[in-house]
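A note from the maintainers: we've had questions about how concatenated examples are separated. There is no special marker in the raw files; a new sequence line simply starts the next protein. For clarity in this README we add a label.
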Amino acid sequence: MMEEENKANIIDDAAEERRRAKAEESYTSKDIEVLSELEGIRKRPGMYIGSTNSSGLHHLIWEIVANSADEAINGFGSNIEVTLHKDGSCSVEDEGRGIPVDIHKGTGMPAVQVLFTRLHAGGKFSDKNYTTSAGLHGVGATATTALSEYTDVTICRGGKMYHIRFGQGGKLEVPLEELGPTRKHGTTVRFKPDPTVFSTVDFKWDSVYNHLQEKAFLIRGVHFFLKDERNKLQHEFYAENGLHDYIDTLCASKERLGDSIYFDDNTSPIKIELALQWCQKDYNSDNIFSYANSVHTFGGGTHVTGLKAGITKAVNDWAIKNEVIKEKDKLGREDIFEGLTAIIHVRIPQSNNEFEGQTKEILGLQEAESAVREFTVKNLTYYLSEHKDFAIDLIHKCQSSKAVRDAARKAKEAARSGKTQKKADFVISDKLAAAQSKDYAENELFIVEGDSAGGSAKSGRDRLHQAILPLRGKPLNTNDTTMEKMRANAEFSTIIQTIGAGVGADFDASESKYGKIIIMTDADTDGAHIQILLLTFFYNYMKPLITNGMVYIACPPLYRVYKKSDPKNKFIYAWDDADLEEAKEKIGPGYGINRYKGLGEMNADQLAATTMNKATRKLLRVRIDDPIVVEKRISVLMGNDASLRKQWIEENVKFDEVDSFMKEVKL
């Protein structure tokens, strides 16, 4: 028996050896693909700029602006100009020292050519040339070159002007050349994004405008100029008071609790700036905008961790010491941060610069956590001691938030335990048609404009996974009301109860009973207004739904083109005027057109097939491309200052194109 087993094992080992040998023969040096550095970037652009959509496109500008800003931060130049050209290119001009043009010993190439075509090359790996810098990985300019149709670099340095040009993908087209004498100094980079790489190559005025305004707030003493040759727009950005001006801009339309607060420390190795503003009404508790070396760290990091701990400790310590609260009644972090907008900016010495990833969305330096925590505790404690009336008002506000939160938690626990709640505790609409499935990730909640559309949606829905909530009218503007009034509103109370994941600081997206929240309104100005009101609510009280990609806009068709001689069997839906022309051509002579002015004009089967059926519908996912843009946009559009709203509409809305406003929806 043992001999037979040994023979079997020998046979198995031999078979395994033959399989391994065959596998090794099929995997040789010929299978090792060696890409040039620029080819590697083009093959995996998301690794270097985050994405190939609009966000990644604009990241090309941010990389070049960051280089110019680093020059300005370190005392070289006070003017930076960004121009959006008619041919779709962008140029960034600064007054810095000018990129070196002498031959780099290690490569035998001019230094500027190395910087724009080689990864991990640059003058920012030590503090010899830059005390602080946004750049560290030596990837930015190279990524811009690799992902552009062309990149032109003009350098003014040492009394001479130089030029070098790279073609598509960074191939050298014009070697470094000397153009002649000049009195100027600095660098101008002009590049045109490659449309074969990006889903869009249309630079957005709003995105660039906001980025430069943000830079001006962060870098005092530097003027940023933006010009758009496409529509003759231009603007200058300069913030004399830095973050103080920044937080006043962000909170311009909010009802504030006390004045804005500002601290800074330029004496320590890690330089810190902090601006705080508490507001009276109930807003999200994660309104923290964080920066490191002038880069917006969207993902936060150690400096944000230190800030949260520092604020929590300072407020609680002061309140206990001054006998406003007892030790056992300490305030939670969510109670203190509710209604707070905070901006934290740290400048890290170049030798300690530590970001996570090329897009630098998270600061990973551990020293920053303790530095920011100690800085915050020291300065905020002193401020509260010097402004006792404000401090007491703040503690009372935090206590009120805590009471509301405790009540909500008890109500949730009661619901989970099967205990009944009083009717006054919440309002729920009798028009809600709930989904039957407990597979919450697959469930969808359609928030529908009007009873007529709601009726069609209920008839055409998938009852197992789709819930329908028709709205009674326009919801409240949650940017201009208290949480108590919001919760008493029938529509919002029903939405909160239906989603079942809490609200405000207590909201937990993982507990949502619906994987998708879909806003379905008419394609007109009233429908757009309802969308904005609902999106404002989700942004203010359920922001993780948006950041987790769970909020959508339904896209019902505007037209149905049919054959008059056979209206039932031959028809095509069209979502815009371009679709309409294509549909008319496909249907051919003798066509008829149904124009849907509202959802209620569609039959249940039509609404289901075009807008609700997962296999055939179109949905737009709501996303936050830039949190600062969103905060300012909501403040302007939903705030109390009508003049700001009028100004924005006049500058941004083309009324002759209102009919096609449903091209894209994004916060």
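[label: protein 2]
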Amino acid sequence: MKNLWDPAEASKCKSELELRVYSSRLLGRDDTLVLHGGGNTSVKVRERNAVGEEEEILYIKGSGWDLQTIEAAGFAPVRLAPLLKLARLEALPDPQMVNELATQVTRAGAPAPSVETILHAILPHKFVDHTHADAVLAITNTSDGEKRIREIYGDNVVIVPYVMPGFDLAKVCARQFEAEARPSTIGMVLLHHGIFSFGATAEESYGRMIELVDRAEKYLEQEKAWDLATPNAHGSEKPMRLEIAALRREVATAAGSPVILSSHSDGKFLAFSQSANVREVSQRGPATPDHILRTKRLPMLGRDVSAYAEAYREYFARNAAHAKEPETMLDPAPRVILDAELGVCCVGRSAKEAGIVRDLYWHTIDVISRAEALGGYRALSEKELFDFEYWDLEQAKLRHAGQPPIFTGEIALVTGAASGIGKACVEALLKRGAAVIGLDVSPGVATTAGPRQDYLGLTCDITSEEAVTAALESGVRAFGGVDILILNAGVFPASEPIAILQPNEWRRVFDVNLDANLTLMRECHPLLSLAPKGGRVVVMGSKNVAAPGPGAAAYSASKAALTQLARVAALEWGAAGIRVNTLHPNAVFDTGIWTEEVLEARARSYGLSVEAYKRNNVLNTEVRGIDVAELAAELCGPTFAKTTGAQIPIDGGNDRVI
């Protein structure tokens, strides 16, 4: 552990709440302490209310906020006195507790207070920090974990047996703290859950957390359980995209909706998946029950999704029979898949969710490996984990999650994605929840959508079959398949009459506008056939197909041939549930080929201003790249679910086409 406290930075904080924000972010920067919304921090301050009365307020991390990026607005201000009164109750159902907490928040619009609010309230310290430190979990998650914790910390910590978060945990912690706390006590360890530290200042509480976790790490080092060797592991060198897409299709069927499935063959992931004891240690449960909401209780071994789903149904039936309230089963699809060829596959409704699963399991492997080195990894019981997975507060979150975007869990591939219509298509698809693979010969494609988990931009010359297959392999390993294909890349050569049109220029245009698209369609067909909601293809044709102009023979002929190719594909692929439709844009001027100089020259040749030239169509409207992209995205949605083989102009109305 490294103490990152910077006195110069801390001195910029103007209040105790700002110091709370600063030290919380320090904790959040270390992913061995907290991950993706995990952990909790609080501070108790005195404030005057609107009528001038002084009250003690507990500022505690609000639901939905992440310690790494939290701001002052992310802390819920809760009146402390009522919390202490609630803590004296013998029992308080968690849904009622949540309601009581909400009634004591002093700022309209504040986030919901953490379910651990009462626990933070009863601890007699100004600043309280709580993390799920990997090193501490590696020690507590063993058969003699409590004994080891006592050996490490003595009376510097209070030890609390596992109790599910909420009111009951607060009561147990209060009893344990009252019975065991000493003047030397600076923290509290919750077995199988995490560690608390506290202090009179933000610096003291933060420093104690670093000190306590550092002692755990040094203990692991002393016991030869810290440095983890990663043996050489070798994944399959053959293309795996069809196997991955087929696996994703089965997982999506079990989940009841499309999913993102990311494959990771990093050394650690692959080595763990191939280890001799993986079938035993991976099936003991998660490192901390908080993970179960993202990873499920157990990872799937191999690729038999139906067997995993059946085992999950049996697990549910076995435990739901003893639940206090009737439970509705969550989907039985796996979220973590361990496979000797693929490494670790992570499943989520979105790329962000799959990324969270990946991060959680990366750290879980460390916890399991270190606990094994201490004598054997041990997780909570099946019943304890079931109770957490079906906790009524988590069920309520699911019920109020709202309707996801229309393409959630789906994957789109867009060619010519670095600019113009292609870039607009990327934006339109991301907005609708899709994960997007963007291809372009320009390296700028890597940053088309900025840094985000649901976009993968790959530099690719689509006229190279080798480059196309390599890009598809990378894209499918990142997201799991291809559901939507937008064939947008193309070239528009300089005007040249047939009399002087050279064969090499004709061939160049056909290579990009026709042959490359044939390659993409052929290579994507098996992936589109595995799309959970049916594959969709949108081909960018041109107004020139119906109304060619002089000097554009190569462009017009290549786009006409591409349109014919799309019509044949619609006929051939319909049986596999793949829809193929064509858009014919015209006069889309917000693209790279239309500079201001070119626009002005073209407008002058028609005797028009630039603005009039842009609107030179029946509807007197400007057609922009985003207009084409929005229609392309809609063609892939439910409104056009029964349409294939269509050719749709998007040109503001062209009198020659009409």
